[in-house]
Amino acid sequence: MHYYRHNIGDYRRDTSHLSLLEHGVYRQLLDMYYLENGNIPSETQWVMRRLGARTEQEKSAVESVLNDFFSMGDRLIQKRCDEELIGYQQHAINSVANGKLGGRPKKTQRVSKQNLDEPNNPLTHEPTNPLTQRNTRGSAAPDGFAEFWAAYPKRTAKPAALRAFKAQRVNGELSNILQDIASKSQTDDWTKDGGKYVPNPATYLNQRRWEDESNRPEFDQFAGAI
């Protein structure tokens, strides 16, 4: 979605407490939300990276805006934006339906009752709402993902992890992955500072970290010979 309405009165009423920096962050977030059709991971660090928040002041502004105007789920949720997206997509569906019927009927043109009663007539059957279906379409987890998710010590951005699990087709290597997770969970890198340095599960999968050279027996033998 590349266009949305901006009600100045509503915006000023709801954002009068924001600083100039927070106003900029909020408008950038709104633009990103609409451009991505609401598909933004509920991961603060990911959002900060996309917005280019680098200073502590900018990062603090992002966190404040997220806390004030968004809720967290499998994705960021902004109810007013979702309402606008639903209206936009509904309008697009209606436009396609009207186009198939030869455009909008003229004011003097009547639609016959016989056509209205047809079972597949788009004018009498409520179109499917793509916004409400997007989180269920293709959302079935593949075999092995539940075991991976339960074993991984850092459970964040589950939708991104699920996409990575599917993309890397790692189900056949599940035993190696679980063994690697169990091993790394005992190392200093993954246990110090409360697991601060544990990569996000999607990063672990996309980078195929279980194939790191340090995991291979021949590497250990070589390292011991040095």
Which characteristics define this entry?
single chain, 226 residues, mainly alpha, 2 domains, two-stranded antiparallel ribbon, 2 strands, flat, disordered C terminus
Provide a descriptive summary of the structure in words.
This protein has two domains: 1-104 and 113-133, no CATH class; 145-225, no CATH class. The chain is mostly helical and 226 residues long. Helix 2 crosses helix 4 (56-69). A two-stranded antiparallel sheet has the order 1-2. It contains 13 helices and two strands, in the order ααααββααααααααα. A hairpin with a 3-residue loop joins strand 1 and strand 2.
Write a brief structural summary.
This protein is an all-alpha fold and 226 residues long. It contains 13 helices and two strands.
